[in-house]
Design a protein that fits this description.
This protein is α+β, with helices and mostly antiparallel strands. It has one domain: Up-down Bundle (Outer membrane efflux proteins (OEP)). The radius of gyration is 39 Å and the shape is elongated. The N terminus is likely disordered.
Length: 450
């Protein structure tokens, strides 16, 4: 009888997960750089930051002096009549007027509050951009890992098809030799058909994950690296859950964005209350006029003035109080959203932390399952050769071995995603996270395009 060799699976995975040469270092960093340059959402966040950076100069203008110049010139035609017997005069002259005015705020509580709010809004824009970078890293990490897992899933599916084709050939030969049954052959053919369908689905998934990654990075030709076989991408057990939560509360950019929003709204309340306060300006002007009136024909007048102008609000129809109430409600809403974001952040940190912690035992158990299913498969094949086991036993062992390998691969990649997300939630610098991922991806991905 013909023996089924289990080496194809090891061969394919060895090709797909060969140690990467030194020049391939930084593959994830390269992908992240490409994503920062090409991802549309991140580019939009960058432009939003640029807009936010202009808020302070705009608000500062309200605290600085303003200078305006104006010029007007009119032509006057008419008649000037006198008491008889003096004849009337015809009038035809121009009266050019040039004015220069300087206004400097001496006391403007509204402008002060607007400037303080703009500073908080600018800091919020920076924090929002930092959060956008973390969000990009999360999306890229997920797309990258899904791409790797799709490639490994396809490799496993193809090995499964090859093994079942061999097993179907054996069942057909056994039936021809009178040793097997039609049921055994039908079972093998059904398993082969299912495996081929799984392979087609895996091919589609690989293409979809490649498109998803290219959408973020702007390139389909990026060199990828993968997790080595049996890698356990776990964080060193140097921080407790409480430490991760404390890091997140202190450094998470989403919380910082919400805190800056609250600060800006507090200044917005003060700005609206400023509607009850007077405004004091220093006003200086210079006016040069010719022929201002009939009595000053052919005369040029120069006037210079410096003074203080005080505007005192008396009644504005209740609009000021309504604006204050509205800003106070917005502040309460922002504070409630901060509480919600904080609770969500703590839950997310705990979720990723526990995924990593429980993943240690889960991955170890799955690796044991892979090793045990490999031994069981070898035993089933030897038993079939000896006539002790049937074809159904081999098929069942093949299915269990394939499932164990796929589950172990999925667990490894899920742990890598959890590792990226935990560090991002804790506010670890993007460059550190990217370098950490590149340290883990030490195998070269060789995409099989059969």
């Amino acid at each position: 009888m013909m023996r089924i060799d289990s080496r194809p699976l090891a061969l394919v995975l060895a090709l797909a997960l060969t140690p990467a040469p030194a020049l391939a270092a930084g593959a994830f960093a390269t992908a992240f750089d490409a994503a920062r340059a090409n991802d549309a959402a991140y580019r939009a966040a960058r432009h939003e930051l640029e807009a936010g950076e202009t808020l302070v100069p705009i608000a500062r203008a309200g605290l600085l002096p303003s200078v305006t110049a104006s010029f007007s010139e009119s032509r006057v035609r008419g008649e000037r009549e006198y008491a008889p017997p003096r004849p009337k005069d015809d009038l035809d002259y121009r009266n050019p007027v040039f004015a220069l005015q300087l206004r400097a705020p001496l006391f403007n509580l509204e402008a002060y509050s607007r400037y303080a709010a703009a500073q908080a809004q600018t800091e919020g824009a920076r924090a929002r951009f930092a959060a956008g970078g973390r969000e990009l890293l999360d999306r890229l990490g997920l797309a990258y890992v899904q791409r790797l897992f799709a490639e490994e899933t396809l490799a496993l599916a193809r090995v499964q098809v090859d093994a079942l084709e061999t097993q179907t050939t054996i069942a057909r030969r056994r039936l021809g030799a009178g040793e097997g049954t039609r049921t055994e052959l039908a079972d093998a053919e059904a398993s082969l058909a299912s495996a081929r369908a799984e392979r087609i689905a895996a091919e589609d998934q690989r293409e979809l994950t490649q498109r998803a990654l290219a959408r973020i990075t702007g390139s389909e030709a990026l060199a990828l690296r993968a997790l080595p076989a049996h890698a356990a991408p776990l964080l060193p057990a140097t921080r407790a859950l409480s430490e991760w939560i404390a890091l997140a509360r202190e450094h998470n950019p989403t919380l910082a964005t919400r805190e800056r929003e609250i600060e800006a709204l507090e200044h917005e309340i003060r700005r609206n209350r400023a509607g009850h306060y007077p405004r004091v300006d220093l006003v200086a002007s210079a006016v040069n006029a010719e022929n201002e009136s009939i009595s000053t024909l052919d005369q040029e007048t120069r006037q210079y003035s410096v003074g203080v102008q005080v505007n005192i609000p008396i009644y504005a129809g209740g609009g000021v109080d309504a604006s204050v109430q509205r800003a106070a409600a917005e502040l309460a809403r922002a504070q409630a959203r901060l509480d919600d974001d904080l609770q969500s952040l703590q839950l997310d940190v705990e979720r990723q932390f526990r995924t990593i912690e429980s993943g240690r035992a889960r991955l170890a158990a799955l690796d044991d399952a892979v090793a045990s299913s490999e031994l069981a498969l070898q035993g089933a094949r030897r038993g079939q050769s000896a006539g002790v086991f049937s074809s159904a036993d081999v098929l069942d062992a093949l299915r269990r071995h394939h499932s164990a390998r796929r589950d172990a691969a999925q667990a490894r990649h899920e742990l890598l995603i959890a590792r990226i997300r935990l560090q991002a939630l804790a506010g670890i610098a993007e460059e550190e996270i990217v370098a950490d991922v590149d340290r883990l991806l030490t195998a070269e991905l060789v995409a099989d395009r059969r």
